[in-house]
Every structure is written in C-alpha cells, then in structure tokens.
Amino acid sequence: MSIQPVPAFEPPYLMAVFSNVRTDDDSGYPQVLARMNEIVAQNPGFLGYESARTPGGLGITVAYFRDHASLRVWREDLEHQAAMKQGRADWYESYTLHVATVERSHGFARNG
C-alpha cells in the first residue's frame, strides 16, 4: 500500500488541526486511538485525516469534515469526549486545536 495524502474535495469543507506534544505515558493510547479511528470513520461527513510526528515530538493531525454538523457529531461523541478527558489527564503535555474552512483544494498524483 502506498502512502497518499487525503484527496482534494470540493470546497467548502472544514479542517481540524490538532497539534500536540505527548507525555511518556503510552498506556492504553494505541487501543483508544484505534477505537477513535473506528468511530470517526462511521461519521458520514468525515472525509479523512493525515497525521505526522516530528523527531522532536510535535504531533500534527489534520482531520477533514464536510461541514460543521459532522464536526459537531465527532466533538460530541461520548467515547471521543472520554478519550479527550483521558488525553488531558495522561497522554498530552499540551495541545492546540484549530478549525478552519477550506476555500480552495486541488491535488496531484504521479501516474505509474
């Protein structure tokens, strides 16, 4: 499987940029992350996400949603709220969330 960015979608849509620095506590994190990926994928307005972590420890996840209603469904999901609470208690030293409207989007993929 090749690595590909999330494709361009017809604007407008939303992007939620979650930048974070993790703690050393990884207990339960992979399992909760897998569950969050399952839940958000069931949201009809979820378009996809991209995530990366620098060698210095800064993590950035950009999630794309069709509209404010679908982002609100994700934000208000009870399991997601519990995961956010546990993240603040155990997994994150700090984080920032930015939500923006995408006004222009295009892409390129080399064939072959």
Report on this structure.
- This protein is an alpha+beta fold and about 110 residues long.
- About 30% of the residues lie in helices and about 35% in strands.
- The protein has helices at about 30-40, 70-75, 80-90; strands spanning about 15-20, 45-55, 60-65, 90-100.
- Strands 2-3-1-4 form a four-stranded antiparallel β-sheet.
Question: Would you spell out the secondary-structure blueprint of this structure?
Answer:
Blueprint: E1 13-22, H1 29-41, E2 46-53, E3 58-65, H2 68-76, H3 78-91, E4 92-102
Antiparallel strand pairs: 1-3, 1-4, 2-3
Alpha carbon gap, first and last residue:
14 Å
Q: What ranges have pLDDT less than 50 throughout 5 or more consecutive residues?
A: none
Largest sheet: 4 strands, antiparallel
Percentage of residues in strands:
25-35%
Strands side by side in the biggest sheet:
2-3-1-4
Amount of helix: 25-40%
What oligomeric state do these chains adopt? single chain
Taking Cα atoms only, what radius of gyration do you get, to the nearest Å? Answer: 15 Å
Q: Give the SSE order as H and E letters.
A: EHEEHHE
DSSP summary, beta strand count:
4
SS class: alpha+beta
Q: If you average the pLDDT, what whole number results?
A: 96
The gross shape turns out to be: globular
Report the total helices: 3
